[in-house]
Fold:
Amino acid sequence: MAATATFNDATDILTVEADNLPTPVSYGTFPNSNNPHTVTAQDFDHAFIYRGGTFGISRTFDVNTWAQDGFIRSIALSLDDNGLFGVGNQIQVGDRLMFVFSDGIKKVFLYMGTQFTSIAGECWLATDDRLDLIMEDQESLTSGTYSYYDQRNARSSTPLGTIGIAANGVALFNPSAGTGGNPPSGFSWNAHYEYSPVDFGDDNCGGHPEQNGQYHYHDGHFLDCWRDGSSMAGYNDYYGATQYNGDNLRHPDGHSKIIGYAFDGFPIYGPYGYDLPWDNLTGSRPMQSAYSTKALEVAGRPDYGSTTNNPPAGSLMQDWEYIEGGGDLDYHNGRFCITPEFQSGTYAYFLSVDSEDVDSPQFPYMVGLTTRESINTAFTLLPVQAPPSGGGEGGGPVVPTLQFINQPQNATANVGETATFSVQARVLPEDGPIAYQWYRSTDGGFAFAAITGATTNSYTISTLAYMTGYRFRCRIIGPLGVSIQSSNSPLDSQAAVLTVAGSGGGSGSTSNRFDSTQGTLDSTAQTFDGT
Structure:
């Protein structure tokens, strides 16, 4: 099944369904000598706010204006605004504040508290009623308005368990193995540290199951499997339509493509970003984490060594610390930037890799020790249950099931003609009324959005050239009007592919569309909005 998604552009809710089993790549042998768990399919259904193309929750102070003279851009603060600094869970020293100014400048500032600074990219509380931002370029008596983004929602530790999902349907975990592997008391193993004395039995894609059988990734090793045999390129048009020097997981300009989403709503990219975060003409390079191992062991930790009793630095989660300015990425392992999909800017996570070896993941690998916004973890994860068979045993009611008699078929039409997709379905063992809803995918089958008004067993569309490669499927629900729903309701049909003759599209179409976020998919004018 991999992962499919539907996006509600009225609520910005992205709903993901998956079974946590990788598609189209597979997983290794489990149990194995280092991992006693068996991989099982999981019933995974999660909805969260989609924040691609945004910087998070927007804020302003009471007076929404700035004024600049020289290198200092000043923000006026009210008494209430002043109370936001350095108190409890508010703005704290070391926070990064992202400002978007009315003159088009977008810039991140490091908050220094009441400590004077004249360094560009820093800001300080110059007086009780003024926040001074140090700019790179001086101006004379200019002013305007702004919005800003702070870290108030990013204080909680990144939780264990599923924090996001990869495009092939596999759960993404943070770097910690939790209490697994019998770590020293009060510590946790780094689940995928290259030099760790503890082996969690990863397969060659870097994945493994946990106790409940949920297969997952902790780092970016899985990209090797995605590239192998162009697996993801053949599976999804988003990866297959374009490439950089033979790598379908990168855009033509070298920037990585999105490999999944964190459950705070932001995209997770592969390791390559633009050299300068706001300039897509500066070339691309691997993004570097700002985390490094501590020079001295933390209190209570065994001495650095090379054994399980004295594990090397980096083997335990507590061995790592964030060094401001030590890399391209912030404490959350992301940055504010433009990307091929979001050319007006976004916050995005990146897979961090070693500066000299892009195939060697670097801590914290995908998402840092906290997330940019609060993660929505209110979802249910259960083993997939086989539908009941027989029925009526012991005098119990018969549980109906839905079945497609005819699946939608691929269709080809000339530009301006119509194409029709249809299904036939029934309820077993006794037929009953069924509700229909058609969905459309414009990204090769990863995300499907509901088509307004398409609520019968057939759907007809007037074709346009850019629609080549669109996929259509039908969801059925039923039987309607009875107390016992089908055991497999709702049920999705197979996806049928539309080909628009003469459009020159095919799988390489540059007009695949994804949802309704108005971003572009890459530098070839693909768009993300679904019409």
